[in-house]
Amino acid sequence: MASTAASLSPPDQRGRTARQLPVHLALLAMALFSLLPLVYMISTSVKADGREFAVPIEWAPEEIHLENYQRSFTRFPTLIFLRNSVIIVVFCLIGEVFTGALVAYGFARARFPGRHVLFMVMLSTMMLPQMVTLIPQFILFRELGWINTFLPLIVPAFFGGHPFYIFLLRQFFMGLPSELEDAARIDGAGFFRIWWSVAMPLAKPGLTTVAILSILTHWNDFTTPLIYLKSTKNFTVALGIHLFKDSYQMRFNQQMAYAVMMTLPVFLLFFLFQKNFIRGITFSGMGGR
Amino acid sequence: MIAAISGSGRLSPLQRREALNGYFAIMPWLLGFIIFIAGPMVYSLGLLFTKWDLLTPPVFNGFANFQRLAQDPTFFASLGNTVFYTALAVPLQLLVALCVALLLNTNIVGQNLYRAVIFLPSQIPIVATALLWFFIYSPTNGLANAIMGGLGLPQQRWLWDIHLVKPALIVMTVWMFGNAMIIFLAGLQDIPQQLYEAAEIDGAGTYRRLRHVTLPLLSPTIFFNLVIGIIGSFQVFIQVFIMTDGGPGTASMMYVLYLYRIGFEELNMGYAALLSWILFLIVLLITLAQFGVARRWVHYEGERDG
Asked: Which residues of chain B neighbour A69 with C-beta distances below 8 Å?
């Protein structure tokens, strides 16, 4: 399909554009399908009260009501939710990147009996639905007295994180040229020293990819906070939505402002780290959970 | 456990040291696996024969959980709904994702812009997406009904209509096709250009190149998306929790939403553990079945990374 374009000479250019017209039309239609809800969300978020359902739809409202954003922050303790989300995301990020990289390096570079079996066990847990262990894990954390604390959300991150991250980072470490590590070993550096000061700096692109996936996962996570966080002061931004679900305390324009606010960091991450972001999605297919 | 694995005794001191380093490095994962996955799953086997509401001490109740399961209409309804949802949402989403990826994979002018614009909306966090589509499906005059009106079609009650609630959720899921599209696009870009050139020399047109080059070489990616998609779809929860709460009636009661209700609203740990185990077996069976069937249609070209 893509093969012809490379051999085009300038006179063919017009023919190429003409041939591409149907492709453009199809892509425009898909872009419209994709974008319409997003534009609807943003335009509603700045509409005046009572204009949310105006007929016909006001795609570009005449008056911009940014106070919807302010109100979506004041009606509920959104700033506290934001603080909680940031705490959880940061701790999980640190835990998953460092322990994930350590485990991955162990699987990539150390030979030990049972390595293949253990690696297969790890891979097989990649497919394990989170929901399967939900009930017994809940009982475990309840026994520990961790309900309504951030601990059930944060502590598991310090045990290697998602097996998928370990898999991704292991691939990354295995792809590094081993000369540098060999040289460090000859200089007398031990296994962990080499991991930390030679392999980790080289693995930065892989670590960034895992970091992005980790941030997205925990920023977006709804189910775990729903189960473990009980009092409003401990809610995350995602869980905050639980408060105005079914209640009519918050108008749709404010709800959309809240949704836009929650989406902004994700888009920011995309624009800042587009390559790593895409790589993470490509590698996983598990985004959007 | 480690002693048993490393106890071969024939390792040289250097090898033993390397092995110890290795075990030490993977220790976080190994402990996490035992504490958070294997341990809880074994423990929950005991729960299957228990009645426990977390408030009073657990009571052994024999096969009562299994008996309840056999005649629980909501369980069967949720299973049916989830299968219906999965059977339509996953193939439709992958089909759209594949078509868009194929369109993007031509040397189209503005490829990057199209890709970003089409991909970005699917990155809205799922809770925000649920909020947005709840609004879109407003029976008064949400976007969905505005479009119906524009097409001269009758207004609908969408999420409040027993027959439309599942299709409405499926449309929303299809809309979130961005991730699958990106994965397809990466798979398409891995296909060696020479194969297309060779096919062209052999006189293969667009359709035959698609049928005999692109699709076979893309089949591992399609398979991967399918496995991930079905497993994910079986766990659909947030959308229904936020948008419909399983209603109207049980028309959109999905499996995990029911599990959540039994576990955290009815506080019936034993029955919820049974539902978790059944979910585990279903996912396991689907995965194994897919790998079994895959041999017939998935084409692996040498080594693949990723």
From this structure: none
- What residue numbers bound the domain in which B41 lies? 2-47
For residue range A83-126, list pLDDT tens digits in order: 999 999 999 999 999 999 999 999 999 999 999 999 999 988 88
Q: Sorting pLDDT into bands at 50, 70 and 90, what band is A3?
A: very low
Asked if the Cβ–Cβ distance from A2 to B105 is below 8 Å, we say yes
Shortest CB distance from A1 goes to which of B29, B43, B206? Answer: B206
Cβ contact (<8 Å) for A121 and B33?
yes
Indicate the residue type of A106: G
Contact between A30 and B118 using a beta-carbon 8 Å cutoff = yes
Q: What is the CATH number of the domain that holds B91?
A: 1.10.3720.10
Rg (Cα) of chain B, in Å, rounded? 25
Shared domain for B29 and B71, answered yes or no, is no
The answer to whether residue B54 is domain-embedded is no
First to last CA, chain A: 33
pLDDT confidence of residue B32: 96
Q: Distance, in angstroms, between A114 CA and closest chain B CA?
A: 6
B120–A44 CB contact, under 8 Å: no
Of A37, A103, A289, the CB nearest to B232: A289
Q: Is B229 left (phi over 0), alpha (psi -120 to 50) or beta?
A: alpha
User: Are B104 and B217 found together in one domain?
Assistant: yes
Tell me yes or no: is domain A71-284 CATH 1.10.3720.10.
yes
Domain ranges of chain A: 4-65, 71-284
Helices and strands: H and E segment counts in chain A:
15, 0
Interface of A with B in 211-230 (CB under 8 A): 219-220, 222-223, 226-227
Domain count within chain B: 2
pLDDT tier at A288, thresholds 50, 70, 90: very low
Task: Please write the tens of the pLDDT for every residue from A11-32.
Answer: 555 666 677 888 999 999 999 9
Q: In this structure, what is the dihedral angle of CA atoms A13, A15, A16, A19, given to the nearest 10 degrees?
A: 160
- Assigned domain for B218 exists: yes
